[in-house]
Amino acid sequence: MCRLPSNALCVAGAARHGDIGIMKKSYVARQSIRIQASAASVWQALTRPELVKQYLFGTEMTADWRIGGAITYRGQWEGKSYEDKGAVKIFQPERLLQTTYFSPLSGLEDKPENYSAVTYELSETDGGTTLTVTQDNNPTQESADHSAKNWGMVLEGLKKLLEK
User: Fold this and answer.
1) DSSP per-residue string spanning 12-78
2) Which distant-in-sequence residues (6+ apart) come within 8 Å of 16 by Cβ?
3) Which CATH number does the domain 36-163 belong to among 3.30.70.860, 3.30.530.20, 3.40.50.2000, 3.90.1300.10?
4) Mean pLDDT in residue range 61-81
5) Staple 8 to which of 4, 75, 104, 135, CB 3.0 to 4.6 Å?
6) Residue pLDDT, tens place only, 114-160
7) Are 72 and 88 in contact (CB under 8 A)?
């Protein structure tokens, strides 16, 4: 568990399930959006399951928000049940969150080199917050483009939720 002051950076140390391990792929998906809400509100939308469900395609998220803590996403996607998973790697409230991420729907084997790192960067200025999401370790450019498109939809939903 991170026991540093709230403005300190907490980073995972020891390897755990969902550790990124050796990454061989370099295709990155990135999306940014400006939201007329405080970084605190955006952070809550990223970390509170009842809010996540409202903009992430009805996904049921559970998370242990400690460094190394497990995070799972359950739901239905294109008629298929899924349970995606990962672990918390960096947790800096209202500024930076990074988790590993693996989806069995990818068809890839559940091993460290097939996990992505998903990074959420928040920057608050002039009464709003810019949120940038980056997902690395996509196996192909097509996969990265698909992820970027999905993140675009997710971020638009998050913006709509927070600006209503």
Assistant:
1) --S--TT--------EEEEEEEEESS-HHHHHHHHH-HHHHHHHTTT-EEEE--STT-EEEEEEEET
2) 68, 87
3) 3.30.530.20
4) 94
5) 4
6) 999 999 999 999 989 999 999 999 989 999 999 999 999 999 999 99
7) no
pLDDT at 25 (0 to 100): 56
What pLDDT is attached to residue 118? Answer: 97
pTM: 0.83
Indicate the pLDDT class of residue 77, thresholds 50, 70 and 90: confident
Domain regions of the chain by residue span:
36-163
More confident of the two residues 164 and 7: 164
CA angle 137, 29, 113 (to 5 degrees): 10
Q: Three-class SS of residue 163?
A: helix
Ramachandran assignment for 139, one of left (phi > 0), alpha (psi -120 to 50 degrees), beta (any other)? alpha
Strand partners, 156: none
| pLDDT of amino acid 29 | 96
Q: What is the DSSP letter of 112?
A: G
How many Å apart are CA 77 and CA 33, to the nearest integer?
A: 24
